[in-house]
Amino acid sequence: MIFDLAIQNAQMLLVLLLAPLLTGFVRKVKARLLRRRGPPLLQPYRDLLRLLRKEVVLAENASWLFRVSPYLIFATTWVAASLVPTFGTGLLFSWSADLIAIIALLGTARFFLVLAGMDVGTSFGGIGASREAMIATLAEPAMMMIVFTIALLAGSTQLSSLAGFMLSSGVGLRVSAGLALVALVMVGIAENARIPIDNPATHLELTMVHEAMVLEYSGRHLALIELAAALKLLLYMSLIACMFFPWGLAPPDARTGAQLQGFAAYLIKLAAGGFLLGLFETMVAKMRIFRISEFLGAALMLGLLGMLLLFVSRSL
Amino acid sequence: MSLASWALVMAHHRDEDNVRAGYVYIVMASFGTLTLLLAFGLLAGPDGNYAFDAMRLQSRSPQWAGILLGLVLLGTGSKAGLVPLHVWLPLAHPAAPSHVSALMSGVMTKVAVYGFIRIVFDLLGPPAWWWGVPVLAAGGGTAVIGILYALMQTDLKRVLAYSTIENIGLIFVGLGLALAFDAAGLRTAGALALTAALFHVLNHMLFKSILFFGAGAVLTATGERQMDRLGGLIHHMPVTSFIFLVACAAISALPPLNGFVSEWLVFQAILLSPQLPHWGLKLLVPAVGALIALSAALAAACFARAFGVVFLGRARSSAAKRAREVDRWSLSAMAVLAGLCVIAGIVPGFVIDGIGPVVEAVTGARMPAQDSIKWLSIVPVAESRSSYNGLLVFMFIAASASLAAYFIHRLASHASRRAPAWDCGFPDPSPATQYTAASFAQPIQQVFGTFVFRAREHVDMPAPGELRPARIDIEMHDPAWEFVYTPVAAAVSFVSGRLDHLQFLTIRRYLSIVFGALVFLLVVLALWP
Fold first, then answer.
1. How high is the pLDDT of residue B441?
2. Which residue of A44, B52, B103, B387 shows the fewest CB atoms closer than 10 Å?
């Protein structure tokens, strides 16, 4: 019990500490692929500290919701990220929220982000909020189809049991799982506001979505929102890793050695994921906003196809 | 009930729109009553015994049971607001005074749900496997179309009325699942689905009442229902806006509030669908799951829009600028309901246990008792499968938020100052430059509306140098009116136009018609096997 609690707490701290590093790593990879030197790996930490030291400039008609939202967005994202298995499946509170609840927690964070974008009453806040709402309406059904496919495969929506099932030899190579993986990567790209859906580095007004919503934020509020965004990226990477590449995950009752081994495997998976994301982002161009429905519609179709295949293969 | 509420709809009867709302309402209510009366007539059978016990004992052929199911679905669906029988609801609910709208949306539509459960689950006998199909299809379609309608509205109370339709759809999905599981003999799965539906009935009653009360408070404070003439109310009505926000989050199915729990239970029931023996259902149920996920995401967008446009931003009219908080009694009524929303979300196990006896009486099984599970989690089937703990999630969020706040206030800079909005360097003092309800929904209208409502945008852009303003007009078609009601109305008016000739005949002709009808009926009786 004490050991499990320690694992859970370690996981909470780990995601918090690793998230900016992952963001920095992706930026570094992208810069190197463009033959630039790029910012140092630790730059996101420095950015956060700098933001924390700065004063907050609030817009004149910002309400209490504008000041509370960053804390709520950060807290819900952090809770969601600490419930996804990273290095071991023995999370003490894993049963308190299953995969559907974790996705819904991210939905809560997004709800408040959209409201915060509308709070000051500027045109850019509104444009970001309305586009984010549109992307969410497309991404969420696709995500739910993926969850259905995985849950029907494993007979559970509980992430620990899911990872345990995937780790056991009973799965094999499944077409439907492969389709779900592709769909999940597409949804993850959309949810994390990466290219080709949105560009995290842009400040070109008419193309931004996420950045437009947080345009009025500054100082410690902005630090929290940036950290939450980094956590969300880490969460999606951990989700993909624990559901589709669970190798090296420490089982629930493992001792310290296995946990450390799981940790090393996790770092390798993150590095691979970050590298692939950076590579993908340098290879594609950002798409027009109304092409997003086709992109996410394809993810939805893949999810649906995966599930139908599962039914067909079950009955044979 | 229909007549009394008709009088309430007509409370402000001098308004042209309200008269039309009252007319459509009374026509649809009569139609619903007609089908239900027919259904009860068939249920009672040839003996004409209208006691429930006698109806249960009747044996019916599958065809008659199917016809009965169709009649009941039409009757209760028209009273609850299933698409395409919903047209009266968004007219009638906003027309009534706000507290009456809360009653109509929150409670009266649920009476239809009760009627459906009573007749189909209790009186109609053992279900056939396909009974769930029309219910599921109607529910899933209603959920998505209802919330899409809601997103296209700019009248706050109409948004709420259309969202009622969406929630009714979700409830009927739960009922359809319960029917399908029951027919397949999967009692516990059926109990789970019925619990989800009844839980959502309770939830919708709670948050929709708050939302209508809140809309009433806004109406009292500003005299406005048009969202595009409101804005910035969070500064003038802080308590109302906080409670409204809680209800918006709850209806958008966000954890740790109550709307999420019932949605989660529906998803858990959907995940049991591979156990169903029939292929049609196996494929239909996951598709309905996708529809439910879509409607949940659209609901979150819809209520972010409603709250954002009405309460956030800058005031778009002088009435919104002068708004004052409403009186204490109205606030406490909303606050009590909001408290119940939070409690039902945090300790859903108690609600599930409370629903348990009802579910057991209807389906003969119930979900496992939740009060013995550690730490007040809820477990639909087995813990290794899925579990959810609203209390812990709530505590985690509260703890991490306060942890973050604590560390930031210890370590980070406290300095803050007020300045004009940044807006990327182009702030415009006019509140008209904000996003409006219509512009917020435009991307969604572009993606879904072009298909469902055949929405077209007509942009009139003057040539450079011309002084007239640019205009954008959005053309939308209501599929329910165009494909169902207009043809029906045209047919009725055609037939009545023909029958008009029979109205001014001589007494001889009337007598011969009566005589002919008598002979015809006697012949029919004589030939009836």
1. 92
2. B52
